[in-house]
Amino acid sequence: HPSSAGPALCRFASDTGHPGSGWAASAAATSAASSCSSSGGGGGGGSGRQGLTPRAADYSLWYQEVIQAAELADQSPVKGCMVIRPTGMALWDALRSALDERIKESGAQNAYFPLFIPVSFLSKEAEHVEGFAKECAVVTHHRLRSTEGGKAVEPDPDAELEEPLIVRPTSETMIWHMFQKWIMSYRDLPLKVNQWANVVRWELRTRPFLRSAEFLWQEGHTAHATREEAVETARQMLDVYADVCRDVLAMPVVKGVKSPTERFAGADDTFTIEALMQNGWALQSGTSHFLGQNFAKAFDVTFSDDANQQQHVWATSWGVSTRLVGALIMSHSDDSGLVLPPAVAPTQAVVVPISPGPDKQPEQHAELMAFVDAQVASMRAAGVRVSIDTRWNVRPGPKFFEYERKGVPLRIEAGARDMAAGK
Q1: Between these two residues, 338 and 205, which has the higher pLDDT value?
Q2: Beta-carbon count within 10 A of 163 CB
Q3: What are residue 221's phi and psi, to 5 degrees?
Q4: How far apart are CA 113 and CA 189, in angstroms?
Q5: Rounded to the nearest 5°, which phi and psi values hold at 324?
Q6: Has residue 46 got a pLDDT over 70?
Q7: How crowded is residue 53: how many other Cβ atoms within 10 Å of its Cβ?
């Protein structure tokens, strides 16, 4: 799909908060994006035949309208958070399935760690706490009580926690606390775990999938006996992300290394993949961090080597988030709506029978639907995700318009002539 008008300028994101949290844009574009978030995407993204805002006219508004028209996400009553609708979740599920298979092939196993982290944990690694302090949501009470008159609730002063809890912004501190229990000997290494979870970072300017206060992601964490093995793992996982972007999302990326000022908080090196959007912006789409021995020293994670000497382990962490759904939208979609690669499209093909319906011409309709059902059965047997549109009160034209907006790769019309031809 042709790119929209705009400067062919590639700026790498400077915000290295979560894997793929940076959004490179001019101040004017950022301001426009903020106003788009508060307006809910404008008038072009609703129902009906009204066209979308062209990319060349307002790229940020176009993005909002594509999401709304395709029913991928909606605003929530919680500022900065989004509701991922079934089609949007199906995209994430498809990506998650493909990535999870590759993560397991790398030797990592899935686990789950608590959503709440003691505030003291975050203080153990100085760079880490500095990087996340301004984004953390804090829990201070474990119970509410009714206010006087019973018309509202408030934190119960008698239920204040002994130690405040941080709502997970990332899990390095919790996981390294557990690694300290699990790692004793070189025989316990390498240790590789992965977690699929939600995280919370209090973002002030938000956009669906690209930046939100709560988002879905996976985060992998590994511990190794040698520096070389840890660096190799960090680079290996970056290659995994790049391969998934290319082979599953049909989205080529550029691999790179972040500058010291852009590294993940607490990392020695941050490796990144950047996807180039149609307007020339570079979108940070995933990161893999070589953590050195910083977290191992902060949490006293040591192992007895083959010479029976105590050594600190070497570490990595790596992750991608639902930001990849935003990258997918901006990589492929056009002024007509969402465009999806078949590999991740929840519905790869839709069949639209051209029939007046079962009430007006029941015999002809039954014959046509028998033909359609047989064709759809053969497609499903071949592994195609296909559906049939049986809304007889909607004309074919609006149906095709709707499916183009929603990014269904293949729209198939089936009528009497197709039935007569047998295909």
Answers
A1: 338
A2: 9
A3: -140, 130
A4: 20
A5: -65, -30
A6: no
A7: 22
Q: What's the predicted TM-score (pTM) here? A: 0.85
Chain-centre distance for alpha carbon 309: 42
Q: Which residue has the higher pLDDT, 21 or 179?
A: 179
Check whether 16 has a pLDDT greater than 90.
no
pLDDT at 36 over 50: no
What mean pLDDT value characterizes the chain? 88
Q: Which amino acid, 285?
A: S
How far is Cα 195 from Cα 110, in angstroms, rounded to an integer? 6
Residue 357: per-residue pLDDT? 86
Whether residue 15 has pLDDT greater than 90: no
Q: Please identify which residue in the block is written with the tokens 């900065």.
A: 80
Buried b (16+ CB within 10 A) or exposed e, 27-48: eebeebbeebbeeebbebbeee
